[in-house]
User: What shape does this take?
Amino acid sequence: MRAKRLIMLGAALFVMAGLWGCGLLVAGGAAGAGVYGYVQGELQRSYGVPMENAILATKKAANSLNLTEVGVERDSIKTIMHYKKSDNTEVTIRVQRMDVNQTEIGVRVGLVGVWDKDQAETIHNYIRENLKV
Assistant: This one.
């Protein structure tokens, strides 16, 4: 009887794990369609453009919003741009290549835990406008 319960429990866990995995696929597909997600202190969105186009659009957006650049970190798949707003609030924008024509942009305004979602959305809107996506 005990073995039967363990088998039933294992089967139930297997089915639940499979359903959870499907949920991740749906969420991942939605992100590619332009839905925002909040992960690790960033408001993230995926854009169907090459990384260099996303970087240029991000710089234009920052310029339009009068953000002051304070530093840039770059490697072959990721560029992180650090800015300050006029009130000294920190803004971090991460541009990361996901594929040849797929780039993820993460925007953080403020510190982790004390972030400004509305301003992060505004920055994404400016980026999207510069990309004409």
Helices lie at 2-32, 51-64, 117-131. The chain has three helices and seven strands. The domain at 34-131 is CATH 3.30.310.80 (TATA-Binding Protein). Residues 11-33 have pLDDT under 50 and may be disordered.
